[in-house]
């Protein structure tokens, strides 16, 4: 089931349970075995002069079998690096995606608790596996409404020559607790990604102005629905046209526009890459795509999160709803839609 | 740098650790981020940090863990065997801000010692930590 910002806490918990039920991810090996050069870099940056990390005699005098790695480096050995990507079964990635879908798009780490079972030594090879262990929410926090979730990371070392199912000896375990939240009005900048959309500045963006003919459409965007006007003969039309065929209700008012809710998926029918002039609140260049929806109508919108060089006609896309908090100029949250490349499932 | 180590057997509850003051120059923020293999842009790219709503690049969590460890072993000496580091994260630690670690022994149970550590900067408490370690006998 895919979550939306309208999902109930029960639905969110149920989705989180499925991630929990997957258990621990497959062990992933660090890039390199534990090694002295990385230890030296680390000691230099931290200005840590503890001799047990560099001097065999000092390490032996302190009861170690030889030089050891700083225990706080446990996580360093398995960091993904500059171009690393998460594995498909990584529970932190899965849980993050889930809460992003549910509208809790911002993140801040709240706790990082590590137990060190033993010091590791150069030459040893560590693996990491992770699991989602705890999900609590929704909670009102200073940053906004959010959910706390905890992943447990386990680092293991296999004895040299070990084969088969021997997972290895656990050397360190870390509980990492994150708050995924919907930014409150004027959310403080403390969060690691306090701005939900890196490429957009909601205080400068041009906001939609709804007319009586288009109100249903923008109400739909706010409700995370892509609404397409439906004409009397059942055909669909976009952009919406004045519904001159409707009759006033008994109270003298026009009834709401008849519409269907689009699936939100389609393909790029045409596009332009906008390089100039500057557009308030948007980074240049950006892509504007005319998308042919699965329902047959075409709709314009920004195609975000893509390299303009790689956009292609026929490319599958899906709608993305953008929720902006209230700010100095808006006392209400407001909403836009855009396209994003559809990920292969 | 501080290399004054505490003699085995002299650690008591209530004992204060000598404070450790660290200036987070941009070089420090970037060098520690890279030494911890953390390439998140907010730790090395000021322009992107600004775009994401941060005042400046800021120190990463792996560095907090490393500094808390160093703060305790600077004082406790090479025989200290770190068994656990708990971090509660507070205000960010931006470049150009100075952090002061203070600590106090909160429990001594045989060879197992617990130290409460707080790292405070201009914005407030950046990290509140509990470190446990054992002391190997000579």
Task: Describe this structure as you would to a colleague.
Chain A: Residues 259-321 form the ChsH2 C-terminal OB-fold domain. Chain A: Residues 30-156 form the FAS1-like dehydratase domain. Chain A: GO terms for molecular function: DNA binding. The complex is a heterodimer of chains A (345) and B (138). Chain A has 345 residues and is an alpha+beta fold. Chain A folds into 2 domains: 9-34 and 69-181, Hotdog Thioesterase (Thiol Ester Dehydrase, Chain A); 202-341, OB fold (Dihydrolipoamide Acetyltransferase, E2P) (Beta Barrel), CATH 2.40.50.840. Chain A has helices at 9-21, 36-46, 56-61, 91-101, 215-222, and strands at residues 28-29, 106-116, 126-141, 144-157, 169-181, 227-230, 236-237, 259-261, 265-274, 286-293, 298-304, 316-324, 334-341. Chain A has a 5-stranded antiparallel beta sheet. In chain A, strands 9-10-11-13-12 form a 5-stranded mixed β-barrel. A 3-stranded antiparallel beta sheet of chain A has the order 7-6-8. In chain A, a hairpin with a 5-residue loop joins strand 6 (227-230) and strand 7. Chain A is elongated, with a radius of gyration of 26 Å. Chain B starts with 15 loop residues before the first strand and ends with a strand. Chain B has helices at 26-35, 46-51, 61-76, and strands spanning 16-23, 80-89, 98-109, 112-121, 124-135. Chain B is 23% helix and 38% strand. The chains are: A alpha+beta (345), B alpha+beta (138). Chain A binds chain B through residues 38, 41-42, 44-52, 58-59, 61-63, 70-73, 75-76, 79, 81-82, 108-116, 119, 187, 189-195, 198, and chain B through 1, 3, 28, 31-32, 34-40, 42, 48, 51-55, 61-70, 73-74, 78-79, 81-89, 91-92, 136.
């Amino acid at each position: 089931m895919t979550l939306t910002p309208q999902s109930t806490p029960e639905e969110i918990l149920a989705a989180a349970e499925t991630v929990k039920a997957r258990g621990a991810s497959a062990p992933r090996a660090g890039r390199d075995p534990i090694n002295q050069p990385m230890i030296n870099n680390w000691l230099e940056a931290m200005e840590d002069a503890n001799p047990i990390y560099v001097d065999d005699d000092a390490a032996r005098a302190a009861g170690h079998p030889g030089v050891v790695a700083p225990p706080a480096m446990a996580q360093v050995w398995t960091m993904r690096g500059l171009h690393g990507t998460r594995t498909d079964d990584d529970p932190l990635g899965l849980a993050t995606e889930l809460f992003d879908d549910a509208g809790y798009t911002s993140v801040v780490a709240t706790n990082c608790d590590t137990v060190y079972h033993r010091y590791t030594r150069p030459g040893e090879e560590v693996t990491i596996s992770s699991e989602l262990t705890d999900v609590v929410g929704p909670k009102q926090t200073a940053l906004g409404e959010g959910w706390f979730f905890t992943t447990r990371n386990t680092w293991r070392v296999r004895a040299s020559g070990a084969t088969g199912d021997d997972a290895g000896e656990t050397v360190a375990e870390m509980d990492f607790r994150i708050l995924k939240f919907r930014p409150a009005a004027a959310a403080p900048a403390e969060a690691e990604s306090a701005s939900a959309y890196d490429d957009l500045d909601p205080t400068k963006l041009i906001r939609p102005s709804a007319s009586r003919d288009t109100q249903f459409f923008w109400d739909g965007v706010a409700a995370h629905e892509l609404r397409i006007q439906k004409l009397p003969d059942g055909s669909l039309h976009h952009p919406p046209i004045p519904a001159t065929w409707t009759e006033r209700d008994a109270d003298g008012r026009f009834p709401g526009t008849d519409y269907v809710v689009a699936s939100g998926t389609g393909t790029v029918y045409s596009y332009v890459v906008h390089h100039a002039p500057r557009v308030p609140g948007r980074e240049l260049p950006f892509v504007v795509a005319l998308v042919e929806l699965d329902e047959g109508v075409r709709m314009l919108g920004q195609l975000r999160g893509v390299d303009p060089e790689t956009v292609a006609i026929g490319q599958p896309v899906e709608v993305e709803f953008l929720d902006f908090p209230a700010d100095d100029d808006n006392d209400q949250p407001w909403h836009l839609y855009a396209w994003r490349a559809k990920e292969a499932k | 740098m501080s290399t004054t180590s505490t003699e085995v057997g002299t650690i008591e509850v209530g004992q204060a650790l000598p404070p450790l003051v660290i200036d987070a120059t941009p070089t420090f923020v970037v060098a520690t981020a890279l030494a911890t293999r953390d390439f998140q842009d907010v730790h090395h790219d000021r322009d992107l940090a600004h775009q994401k709503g941060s005042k400046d690049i800021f120190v990463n969590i792996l560095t907090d863990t490393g500094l808390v460890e160093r703060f305790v072993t600077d004082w406790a000496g090479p025989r200290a065997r770190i068994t656990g580091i708990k971090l509660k994260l507070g205000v960010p630690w931006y470049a150009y801000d100075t952090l002061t670690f203070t600590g106090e022994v909160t429990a001594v149970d045989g060879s197992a010692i617990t130290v409460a550590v707080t790292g405070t900067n201009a914005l407030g408490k950046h990290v509140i930590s509990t470190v446990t370690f054992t002391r190997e006998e000579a």
